[in-house]
Specification:
Four Helix Bundle (Hemerythrin (Met), subunit A); six-stranded mixed β-sheet; about 45% helix; 5 domains; Heat Shock Protein 90; alpha/beta
Length: about 800
Amino acid sequence: MSLSKDIRNQLIASFRAELAEHVQTMTDGLLAIEQHRNEGSPRQETLEKMFRAAHSLKGAARAIGGTAIEQVAHALEDVLDGLRQDTLETSPMLFTTCYKALDAIQGALAAYEAGETTPPIEALQAVAELAGFRGKDKSKLAPAQPEAVSQAAITQPLAEALTETALQQEQPGPAGKPPEQEVPEPTTRVEPKLQPAVASTGPAQPGFPISDETIRVSVTKLDGLMAQLSELLVTKIRAGQRLGQVRQFQGMVGQMQKDWLVTRSAYSRLARQDANGGIGALGKDIQQLMVYAGASQDQLRLMMALVNEMAREYANDTMHMSLVVDELEEEIKRVRMLPLSTITGPFARMVRDLAQESGKQVVLDIRGGETELDKRVLEQIKDPLVHMLRNAVDHGIELPDARTAAGKPACGTITLAAEQSGKDVIISVSDDGAGLDLPALRKSLTRRRGGTSVESTAAQHLSDSDLVEAIFQPGVSRRASVSGISGRGVGLDVVRRNVETLNGRIDLDWQVGKGATFRLTLPLGLSSSRGLLVRASGQTFAIPLTTVERILLVDRQEIVSLEGRDAIRYEGRPVTVVRLRDILDLPPSQSGRGERIPVVVLAAAERRMAFAVDELVGEQEVVIKSLGKQLRKVGGIAGATVLGDGRVVLILNILDLFKLALQGTRRPAAMETESDAQPEEKFQAHILIVDDSITTRTLEKNILEAAGYKVQVAVDGQEALNAIVSGDLPSLVVSDIMMPRMNGFELTQRIKADPRLVQVPVILVSSLDSPEDKARGIDVGAEAYITKGQFDQNNLLEMIEQLI
């Protein structure tokens, strides 16, 4: 009976996870036995685990019809049974053959998922090579050399066997039952493998361990939960804003009551005069005012009591919602946390293979594998860890003869350790090799700079700290030639870039002849929940609070010029200072013109830089929203957030700001030019932005206003057309295409069909990038067509300048 596509996909997903678990169990066991690392687990126990893994994998592969996987697992099972029965002797060739068989299993899985029916040649070779190690009598063991087996001898008989097995599995036995499948009886008792239960309806059976119930949840669903949580956090922020407004109203009513207390004595005197007939001549008007004032006093007292009660209840509700939302946020983040061991499984095998390739003996020791990080952090540090492990094998660990001559064990050790420190995780990669070869680094740096006499002299005079910094630059390697492991001059620059992207830092310690340690300090999670709000040129920006080291008020005379750049003295050292509005290419403003300048000192990846701003707004919880791939090229911007009052504020990318600050020339931070003090009056072109995405509208509006344009926004083509008809004629229109009510094509067509608007240029900015869509844009009359995947603010500004 053929399975439906959905059921087959579910079975494959479950089998893929089970296969990965069994393959990792066998890989770890082989490494432990080969490298004699069985102190914590006896050799026989390790072999039993490996044998059960191969046996379970064979059964699971048979259940889904993965014949090639089943046959390789069966051959591995025979070899592992020989090892645990002590009828096989271990040898380097046996371990290598087993590793190749595990690789063949994963290759066969990929072929099975792709729907291929022909067994992969790697699986056939693995079965044939493993067959050479079968046997019970050690005296008769003479493993067949893989090279001695011809291709035809491997392919033909095994292909026929695999095909015959597949046919037998498809044909039902008598009465529609599947044929009995022969399972080799182990010579010693094998305990059944216990699978974790998803649900249990009966009492626990004696002899079976009780464990927590678990379910598998896809990362996509967790990301969806995080997205919804972000909206809930925005609601919490807005509730806090509303509470502030209620308290402001409470203060106003309280002030009214205080004002009444001041005039109450006058009211009492008038009331007594009225009662004694003393007002008489003033008439009924004053009497009516007296009645109104008395009634107002009673109403004010009741209103004050109601406002106080409402403020108290609203504060309680807001506090309760904050507690629930914060707890929910922590729980969801905790669900996304995974142990470091999630990504370190293949590392030991990789180090073993690299060591054999380079003629070295290396053992990888992993400590703190249970340390947890956010899944996205784990994904982004996997490649950096691989780079550092490869460098440790190739550059750090010496050849066995060199190690022995230096009084070290012939086998080197690389240690990958992790530990949590507050809200950070420290991951270190250490080796007991030769340490850094500074002379080789000098030569490499000279080769990279071209080898001229001046540059060679400069490289020779670099300090040790400068040389260490140089190894994180692209193209620097101490090897003069390219090897299969390293020497291409890539790796550590990638490590630093990935670590900086995570707002982390990397440190390096080493001792000549004793080894080196790379230490990564990373946050547990990626997003910051609080931000510092600052203003520059009339616009508000958010800075992740984790990057803010200090906030200062600096006198203008304290800013000095150092090596062509402005600097201030901070903690006894000079720190570069730049104006934030210059970095973001914003126009001059009238704010921040006092003698003391607000300065924010930012730190990331062991770098510090000070940014002068116009005003410090305050600190607030923020929810970081991505701008999307189409806007990833906008420099200095990491995302956006929505404030409690509904305003959209851009969040700054600190590492981008550092890079932008070091490019080009900037005006002195303390200088007040004539243009700053008296902005030049000039014509402001009127640009209409039409887009149904609030993020895109806000970003484009900020870019164009920063360039000096007057900007108007509309959410769709119909609103844009109404604004054009009822208001001023725009100088240019920037429009999206896919919008409700009236799309960008229809809007452009209507504009070009109106004699009064025909001269207004239209730029279409859309994610639609097919030739047909671009041709249609030109056909309806658009002057330019920009795809969001290639969006660049400089190109947009240049195009607008040409068209206006």
